[in-house]
Each structure stands twice: as structure tokens, then as C-alpha cells.
Amino acid sequence: MAEIDGVAYLGAGTKTLDEMILGKAAQHVTDLAQLTALRADPLDRATARSAHEILRRHHHPAFDPLTRGRSTAFPASHVEMHMRAHGGAMPAAGEVGRGDVKTSPLWHAAAKMPFQRWYCDGSFQGTFPLMASSMELALDQSFDKLATSVLPTIQADFKSVIQHLRPPRYPYPVDASLAAKGKALLESDKLGCATCHGTYDGQGNIRWTGLHTEVGTDPDRMEIVNAGFTAAFNGSPIAKEGQLSRSKGYAATPLTGVWANFPYLHNGSVPTLYHLLGPASERPGVFSVLAARKLDKPKVGQALNPEMPATQARDKAHLLRAHGDDRDWFNTRRLGNGNQGHDFWSRIASDDNRWALIEYLKTL
Ligand code: HEC
What we know:
Elements: E1 2-4, E2 7-9, H1 19-29, H2 32-38, H3 42-57, H4 73-85, H5 93-96, H6 108-112, E3 117-118, E4 124-126, H7 143-160, H8 176-186, H9 193-197, E5 199-200, E6 206-207, E7 212-213, H10 220-223, H11 227-234, E8 242-244, E9 250-251, H12 273-276, E10 286-288, H13 310-313, H14 316-323, E11 329-331, H15 345-348, H16 351-361
Antiparallel strand pairs: 1-2, 3-4, 4-8, 5-6, 7-9, 10-11
Bound molecules: heme C.
């Protein structure tokens, strides 16, 4: 779920949740010392002790995303599989790698289904996105139990609900004639957007290309699919359900509901469509993550640095000094957070074209 302008959108990936704080809080509240103070009853104490032990034993530094609102779910799967293959031992941090990403919206599942390639890089291929199931291992289930109980449940949920989800409509007025101009541009040979991203019926459906390709964006997330991860995956029971092999590029993201899928690119490094469709050199280097609760209507995407005097909000050196080390702020200098690539400004060529494309993207 994501909150945008006070409305909760089902299926939109979270934009602000801090997984690191959540993990720490869970460890804290299951800590027996805390519970003694609360005089919890014996059953609660036993449950808390067991939960605390699992949380502690399964924690790895590569689990914690470097920024609030980003996730490392894929490395988490990696660690769990690696532990199984190594008699329950943790891999070293360097063996896992990083690759913080934003959470994809569930309505992308409909577009991806025919291609059976999942997640932002498409390295995992199978009938449904089952890497998520390995997270269930953190509940201390055995792999064999996972294969017989958890996988069928996830598959059933996927078939009955998730593949039918469509994106929410853009909730504000749209300029129809400007959007029509944008549609013609997006589908034109000169811009080539549709060659990669497919075509759209305006009802939340897409004729997707299934393309995964290199457009110069940050490579770190793709590179976590290393030899160790692949070997650990192949030795696990879920290898029966799919394959893992490093992709040659990120998915040419389905653009259904793209107005709500900000900040943009797989790592959420570009706050608005306006910045994504302009020259890469003009994209902001530091911006507030919590500001993602508000839509920037003209530029389509998240507000940048609200509640700050305009002169400071535009002062790059000030922003870096004041917020560069703050995990509540996105800093493109962090590992895996680069905002480079996908620069089609030489084809888009004018602000008129940029605004028309943005208007059309609101309608998908
Ligand atoms: C060569 C193929 C290609 C072309 C041409 C292309 N894109 Fe993309 N686009 C991609 C890929 C690949 C990504 C994902 C990159 C990443 O996540 O690192 C992407 C990402 C995006 C995103 C971010 C979506 C999100 O939810 O984060 C938008 C918006 C977008 N493209 C719009 C456009 C528009 C508009 C055009 C035409 C001006 C265009 N693209 C041209 C391949 C392409």
C-alpha cells in the first residue's frame, strides 16, 4: 500500500516504510528483558523468546536497506538460501551484495504473467514470483515444508487475486488533447518509447514487450545475482518451480499506473516523470523520502523537499551537508542509488513534448 495525498492505494508499493526500523523494533519488543518488565504470561514469554531468536539468527547486515522506503527483499532470499546450503551459517557480507530497490506495484503482475520473468531485473523466471516465498523461511519453516505448504498458498493467492489487480486511475483532471499528443509521441518511431514499453488501452491493460534491456541505469541490483546466489538457488527445493540467471538488463517497466509508481526507476532514484524525461544531469541528487506521501501534480511524482525555504531546497551543497547521511533522505551517491541512465532527452528534445508525454502517462 502507498499513501498519496491522504488516500491509501492497494497494490502500490510502499514509499516510506523503513524496514530497518521495523526489524529493530521487532527485536526490541521481543526482547525478554522488556517483557519481564511487562510481566507477560509464560506462553507469551516463550513465543517472544522464540521470535527474538529467529529475528537475531536470521539478521544479516545486507538485509537492511540503506534508505527508508527501499527494500532488499532479493538479498534476503539470497541469505536464506545460502544458509541452507551452508548448514545454517550466515554468508559473509561481501558474498551477498546490495541492491536496494523500490517495491513494485502488484498490478505489474498482469503484464508480466505471459513472460514469466519477475522482479525489476527479470533474473527469476517461473510461473509466479515465488522468490518472495523464501521470506517465509524467516518463520523458521523448513525448506521442505515451504515447498509443500507455503508455495501452493502463494500460488493460489496469486491466481485468485493478484493477477487480476489493475492500477488506480489518476485522481485529478487530465488535459485530453495534450494527452492525445503525448500518446502519438510515445508510440512514434522517433521516440521509440512503445518499442520498449508496449502499448496501452487506457483501462489499465497493456500489450507488453517483455523486454529486459540495459539503458545505463545503476547496475548494482542486477549484479547481486552472482555465482553463489545461483548455486544456492539451484540447491534449494524451489529450483523445481523456476530458474535464476542474471539478466542482461532491467525490465522495460510496464507503465500501467505509472503516475502512482514514483519515485522512478528500479531504485526509486528519480522523484518525478518530469525529471526522468529530461536530461539526466538535471535530476536531483538528494530528496526527502517522507515527502513521497504528496503528489507533485505538474511534474507527476513525489514532492521534493517541502517545508523548506525555496533557496535551501534548491541548494545542492546545503542539502548534501544537512541530509546526505540521513536515511530518511534519498542520496544518489549511496551504493546502488545512482540516478543515471534512461536519458532520452535528445529524442524528446523539447519541453512541449515532455509535458505532452507526462499528460499521456497520467492516463495509463
Ligand atoms: C531501449 C528501451 C527503452 C526506451 C526506448 C525507453 N525506455 Fe523507459 N525504461 C526502459 C527500461 C529498461 C526501464 C527500467 C530502467 C530501470 O529501472 O533501471 C525504463 C523505465 C522507464 C520509466 C520508469 C517507470 C517506473 O515505474 O519507475 C518510465 C516512466 C519510462 N521508462 C518511460 C519512457 C518513455 C516516456 C520513453 C520514451 C521517451 C521511454 N521510456 C523510452 C527502457 C526503455
